[in-house]
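quick q for whoever's on today - can somebody do inverse folding on this one?? i tried earlier but teh output was garbage lol. C-alpha cells:
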C-alpha cells in the first residue's frame, strides 16, 4: 500500500432476505454506482447475501479462502470496479456440522482475499417485541483482533454486536487503526435505542473514523433491521447517514484529521493499567 492519503469510501445499505441472487444483484448495482461516484473502498453490511431460516443458510455456506459462487460474485464486483471491497459478514463454512463463522472479508481491487476477521462477540438475546436471536447456536466465535491496510492507512475490522465491547476497539487503535468498520444487521428495537450512541462512542474513544454499513427493513419473518448506515469522524461527528432504503453514503477518510484529533486530545496516550482493590 502506498503512503496513506485521503480516500473517498462508501457504506452500502440493503435489505437482505432469503433470496441470495436478489440480494447480490442489489449490492452489485449499489457497488457499481458507488464506485462510479468515486468511492475507492466499498463497505457492505453484515449477512449481505442471506438473511433467513437457518436451513437455507446452511445450504449456501462457502469455505474460505476457497469460496464458491457468492464469493466469486463479490470478487467480480471488486475487479470490475477496481475497488477494495469489505464484505461485512460472509457465511463461512466450518468443519463443525451445523455451525458457521460470521466473517468479514477484505477483497483488493483484483478480487483477492487480503484479510479475514471472524466475529468474536455473538448476539444471543430475547427482546420484548418477540424477536429471539441465538447467534451462538449456529455460529462459532473468532478469537483474534484483525486489521488490514487500505489507501488511507490501517483499518480495524469488527462486526455488529462487537460494537458493545469497547476493549476491542481500543485494541484495534493500539494496533494502529485510524478507521474501523462495523457492518451490521442491527435489530430495529436495539437500533432505535443504542445504534447512534454506541457508534459515536466508539469513534470518540478510539479517536478513529467509524464506518457502519447496515441492513434495513423487513428481512424475513419477524426480523426487521434498523438501517441508518453511518460514517462518523474521529471527533464523533456524523459525516453521512442513510436512514432507510437501499442505497449508499460516501465520505472522505483523512488520516491527517485523525492525527490532528489525537494530537489535540491525546487520550489514547493517557491509558493506564490498574487492578481491583
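ok took a stab at it. sequence:
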Amino acid at each position: 500500500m502506498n503512503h496513506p492519503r485521503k480516500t473517498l469510501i462508501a457504506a452500502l445499505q440493503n435489505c437482505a432476505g432469503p433470496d441470495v441472487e436478489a440480494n447480490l444483484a442489489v449490492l452489485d448495482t449499489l457497488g457499481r454506482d458507488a464506485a462510479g461516484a468515486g468511492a475507492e473502498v466499498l463497505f457492505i453490511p453484515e449477512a449481505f447475501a442471506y438473511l433467513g431460516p437457518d436451513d437455507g443458510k446452511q445450504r449456501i455456506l462457502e469455505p474460505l479462502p476457497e469460496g464458491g459462487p457468492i464469493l466469486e460474485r463479490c470478487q467480480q464486483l471488486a475487479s470490475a470496479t477496481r475497488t477494495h471491497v469489505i464484505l461485512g459478514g460472509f457465511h463461512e463454512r466450518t468443519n463443525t456440522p451445523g455451525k458457521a463463522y460470521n466473517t468479514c472479508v477484505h477483497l483488493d481491487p483484483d478480487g483477492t482475499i487480503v484479510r479475514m476477521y471472524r466475529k468474536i462477540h455473538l448476539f444471543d438475546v430475547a427482546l420484548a417485541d418477540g424477536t429471539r436471536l441465538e447467534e451462538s447456536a449456529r455460529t462459532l466465535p473468532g478469537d483474534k483482533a484483525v486489521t488490514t491496510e487500505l489507501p488511507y492507512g490501517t483499518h480495524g475490522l469488527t462486526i455488529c454486536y462487537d460494537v458493545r465491547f469497547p476493549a476491542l476497539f481500543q485494541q484495534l487503535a493500539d494496533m494502529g487503526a485510524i478507521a474501523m468498520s462495523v457492518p451490521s444487521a442491527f435489530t430495529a428495537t436495539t437500533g432505535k435505542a443504542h445504534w447512534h450512541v454506541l457508534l459515536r462512542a466508539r469513534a470518540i474513544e478510539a479517536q478513529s473514523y467509524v464506518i457502519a454499513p447496515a441492513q434495513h427493513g423487513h428481512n424475513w419473518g419477524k426480523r426487521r433491521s434498523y438501517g441508518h448506515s453511518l460514517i462518523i469522524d474521529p471527533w464523533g461527528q456524523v459525516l453521512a447517514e442513510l436512514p432507510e432504503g437501499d442505497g449508499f453514503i460516501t465520505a472522505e477518510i483523512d488520516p491527517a484529521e485523525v492525527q490532528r484529533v489525537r494530537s489535540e486530545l491525546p487520550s489514547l496516550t493517557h491509558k493506564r493499567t490498574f487492578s481491583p482493590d
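fwiw Residues 158 and 182 are 5 Å apart (CA to CA). also The first strand starts at residue 7 and ends at 13. so keep that in mind when u check it
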